[in-house]
């Protein structure tokens, strides 16, 4: 074991040896999306400071470096306001927290904001990051069964996420992570709903709104009618304007991944193509959005279906395989955990694993 | 400067965070501020809380202490072996004081160490991958990324090469049409519409030789049949020009008598048992699978599943369909009846067949028929995925083929 003094001495020798070497440059050139050296113009109004600064030079509490910005926290600054100002995205607050080993800011703190992601896949020696995706179907005020979650249970689950530091992210964010374009904060989780039941709007949606959680709703378009148990387009439009991403769950909810007995390959092929094309068309007509993801009815998929999704421009498919998703998960076999109405809070929590050390030891 | 006076007092407030660093943040993520937590969606930002007006110390004071903070952090991260975090901390120190010999030296040394360790794991990963040891390869690639998260080659192996295979490629030869390709790849010229659709070809088109076509595998389970096992961690096979290789038929479609699955409304297993008694083993297995998907701990369903797959396995065994038999019996718990014995018998039988194909491949190899050899050895590996010689020689032959192609 080397003493610190010895090691420092060695370090100095190495430093002298390498002095003048051009390869010592700070920036690793491999970063796929290098942030601009200068921060983008603020997206949020900068907090007023008592320091009168000439507009051509940066304020005295900020110093820019090629890879990072050093900032003295001003009154009113928060992790997300700094993330908004210097990283152009308030949801990147966790990156500042992680790098500085802090969870909140105090005016006067010195904080270093790395301008580009330090990591893309969430792989450490302790394990690799996985992102759970939760799947819900129906809700009820007073009763529950496997596919129906009671209102108080859903409320309790959402509160559990908040209390335990989970970050509910958008499905789009997960796919950026899978494409190695975006690191995700620890304890990221995605919430999804299948089919298009009215109780999702009546019970789950208000709770989501209250928590500010984004979510994705996968509808099979034949179900959508103005009845007491199903969603209608008016309600879907309202939700899609308020943070609910609407995606495809086929037209009729036939299994797209399995061929019926007696069905020819050609008939099957045409059927799944029209299931996808027709439902995407209806969603486009009703909401004006292009669908990107399919939640496989019954979770069934196969290579032909995946090839067809690719051909039709889909970017991913979601199964009901109860597994979290590392960055190297297959975009067309994203795992999802069905949350049943029969689950207690402990069983719910068992589905929230976000770090996997299997095969790392 | 006018703000100096109040700032002197406030300099006392200056308190930089400790040396927790990246390490602790990963393990025990900080509790985000309530506001940050409530507004993860950038679309609907919640209002900012009232601004607390507190004077702030001058830049020089707080910033001047940053190098010290990060130097301490760097030391503790190095002690913990978290090289990546330490490198970042040293970079902060060096940016503040470019002349600092320690920072400069540590940055260079850590960069070098990280590069060499990550590179070592990557190299070993590729070796393991070539040997077909996918679990070990995966571990090496993960270790490489733990050192260097931007090592794209390791990421690419994990993400693409160690992933499930959904496509095969076919390189056209003189006179190929969608029909002839379908015949060759899918053993059915009537599947030409699949070839045409995925490669945007006209039905009657004749194809320029040397065109690389991408074709999905066609392993489509029948509704109500037993689940097709996931074929994970399979390498992407490369195929020579003008020929193709059907994937190992690990996921053969279930027998044609399979019909749409029974509707499961509760956990009652009476219907499943009735199916089993009626000889509807596929349906019974599917029934059990569906129950187990909902309640994995259901022992009776497990028993039903064992009985059904055992029947299917022994049926295939009687018909001498060894791969199918093995596939079914492997779904049966090892403790069930004579599952262990049957599995080992089938495996040794398959190994013998594999040996025969291996020998045939060797003959062809010696006769300088590389493609023939590859075909035999691939068959050998299909029958016995761990056949050591076939794996080694197949790799060799493929490399030779590759060289011949590029000559």
Helix-strand layout with pairing:
The complex is a heterodimer of chains A (361) and B (407).
Chain A: H1 4-18, E1 62-64, E2 68-72, H2 79-87, H3 93-100, E3 110-114, E4 123-124, E5 127-129, E6 133-136, E7 138-140, E8 148-150, H4 151-163, E9 167-168, H5 171-178, E10 188-195, H6 198-211, E11 215-219, H7 233-240, E12 244-248, H8 265-287, E13 293-295, H9 303-311, E14 316-318, E15 337-338, H10 345-350, E16 355-356
Parallel strand pairs in A: 6-10, 6-15, 7-8, 9-10, 10-11, 11-12, 13-14
Antiparallel strand pairs in A: 1-2, 2-3, 4-5, 5-16
Helix pairs in contact in A: 2-3, 4-6
Chain B: H1 4-10, H2 21-27, H3 34-38, H4 59-79, H5 83-96, H6 101-130, H7 134-147, H8 152-161, E1 167-171, H9 178-186, H10 192-199, E2 212-216, H11 270-277, H12 281-294, H13 299-318, H14 322-329, H15 339-366, H16 370-383, H17 388-406
Antiparallel strand pairs in B: 1-2
Question: Can you offer a commentary on this structure?
Answer:
The complex is a heterodimer of chains A (361) and B (407). By secondary structure, chain A is of the alpha/beta class. Chain A folds into 2 domains: 37-118, no CATH class; 124-356, TIM Barrel (Alpha-Beta Barrel), CATH 3.20.20. Helices cover 31% and strands 16% of the residues of chain A. In chain A, the strands form 5 sheets. In chain A, strands 6, 9, 10, 11, 12 and 15 form a 6-stranded parallel beta sheet that branches. A 3-stranded antiparallel beta sheet of chain A has the order 1-2-3. In chain A, strand 10 (188-195), helix 6 and strand 11 form a beta-alpha-beta unit. Chain A starts with a helix and ends in a 5-residue tail after the last strand. Chain B is mainly alpha-helical. Chain B has a domain at 66-162: Alpha Horseshoe (Serine Threonine Protein Phosphatase 5, Tetratricopeptide repeat), CATH 1.25.40. Chain B starts with a helix and ends with a helix. The relative contact order of chain B is 0.05. At the A-B interface, helix 1, strand 2, helix 2, helix 3 and strand 3 of A face helix 2, helix 3, helix 4, helix 5 and helix 6 of B.
């Amino acid at each position: 074991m080397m003493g610190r003094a010895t090691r420092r001495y060695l370090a100095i020798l190495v430093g002298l040896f390498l002095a003048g070497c051009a390869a010592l440059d700070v920036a690793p050139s491999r970063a796929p999306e290098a942030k601009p050296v200068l921060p983008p113009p603020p997206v949020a109004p900068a907090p007023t400071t008592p320091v009168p600064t000439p507009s051509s030079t940066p304020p005295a509490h900020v110093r820019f470096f090629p890879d990072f910005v050093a900032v003295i926290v001003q009154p009113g600054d928060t992790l997300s306001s700094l993330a908004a100002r210097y990283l152009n995205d308030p949801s990147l607050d966790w990156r500042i927290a992680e790098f500085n080993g802090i969870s909140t800011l105090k005016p006067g703190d010195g904080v270093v904001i790395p301008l580009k992601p330090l990591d893309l896949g969430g792989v450490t020696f302790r394990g690799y990051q996985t992102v759970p995706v939760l799947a819900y179907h129906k809700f009820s005020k007073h009763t529950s069964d496997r596919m129906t979650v009671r209102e108080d249970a859903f409320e309790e689950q959402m509160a559990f996420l908040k209390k335990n530091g989970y970050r509910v992210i958008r499905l789009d964010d997960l796919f950026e992570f899978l494409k190695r374009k975006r690191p995700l904060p620890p304890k990221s989780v995605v919430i999804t709903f299948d089919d298009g039941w009215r109780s999702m709007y009546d019970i789950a949606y208000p709770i989501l709104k209250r928590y500010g959680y984004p979510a994705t709703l996968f509808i099979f378009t034949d179900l959508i009618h103005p009845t007491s148990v199903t969603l209608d387009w008016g309600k879907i439009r309202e939700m899609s304007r308020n943070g609910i991403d609407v995606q495809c769950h086929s037209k009729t909810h036939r299994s797209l991944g399995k061929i019926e007995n007696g069905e020819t390959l050609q008939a099957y092929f045409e059927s799944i193509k029209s299931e996808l094309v027709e439902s995407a068309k209806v969603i486009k007509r009703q909401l004006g959005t292009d669908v990107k993801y399919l939640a496989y009815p019954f979770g069934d998929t196969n290579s032909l279906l995946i090839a067809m999704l690719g051909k039709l421009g889909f970017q991913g498919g979601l199964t009901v395989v109860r597994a979290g998703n590392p960055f190297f998960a297959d975009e067309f076999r994203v795992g999802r955990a069905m949350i049943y109405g029969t689950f207690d809070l402990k069983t719910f929590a068992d589905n929230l694993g976000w770090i996997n050390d299997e095969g790392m030891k | 400067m006018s703000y100096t006076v109040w700032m002197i007092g406030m300099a006392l407030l200056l308190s930089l965070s400790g040396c927790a660093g990246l390490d602790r943040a990963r393990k025990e993520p900080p509790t985000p501020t309530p506001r940050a937590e409530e507004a993860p969606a950038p679309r609907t930002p919640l209002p900012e809380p009232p601004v607390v007006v507190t004077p702030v110390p001058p830049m020089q004071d707080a910033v001047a202490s940053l190098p010290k903070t990060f130097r301490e952090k760097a030391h503790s991260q190095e002690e913990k072996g978290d090289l990546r975090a330490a490198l970042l901390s040293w970079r902060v120190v060096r940016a503040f004081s470019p002349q600092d010999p320690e920072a400069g030296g540590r940055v260079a040394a850590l960069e070098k160490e990280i590069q060499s360790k990550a590179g070592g794991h990557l190299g070993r990963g590729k070796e393991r991958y070539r040997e077909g040891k996918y679990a070990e390869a995966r571990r090496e690639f993960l270790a490489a990324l733990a050192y260097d998260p931007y090592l794209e080659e390791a990421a690419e192996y994990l993400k693409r090469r160690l992933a499930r295979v959904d496509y095969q490629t076919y390189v056209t030869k003189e006179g190929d049409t969608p029909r002839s390709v379908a015949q060759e790849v899918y053993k059915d010229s009537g599947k030409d519409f699949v070839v045409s659709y995925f490669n945007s070809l006209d039905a009657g088109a004749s194809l320029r030789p040397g065109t690389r076509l991408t074709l999905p595998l066609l392993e489509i389970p029948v509704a109500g049949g037993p689940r097709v096992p996931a074929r994970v961690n399979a390498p992407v096979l490369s195929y020579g020009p003008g020929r193709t290789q059907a994937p190992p038929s690990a996921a053969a479609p279930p027998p044609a008598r399979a019909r749409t699955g029974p509707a499961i409304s509760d956990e009652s297993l009476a219907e499943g048992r009735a199916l089993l008694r009626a000889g509807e083993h596929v349906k019974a297995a599917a029934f059990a699978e569906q129950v187990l998907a909902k309640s994995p701990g259901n022992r009776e369903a497990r028993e039903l599943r064992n009985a059904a797959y055992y029947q299917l396995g022994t049926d295939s065994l009687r018909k001498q369909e060894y791969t199918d038999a093995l596939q079914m019996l492997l779904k049966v718990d090892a403790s069930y009846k004579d599952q262990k014995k049957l599995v080992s018998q089938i495996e040794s039988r398959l190994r013998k067949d594999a040996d025969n194909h291996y020998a045939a491949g060797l003959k062809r190899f010696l006769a300088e028929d590389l493609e023939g050899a590859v075909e035999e050895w691939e068959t050998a590996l299909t029958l016995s995925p761990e056949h050591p010689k076939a794996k080694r020689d197949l790799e060799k032959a493929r490399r030779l083929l590759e060289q011949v192609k590029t000559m």
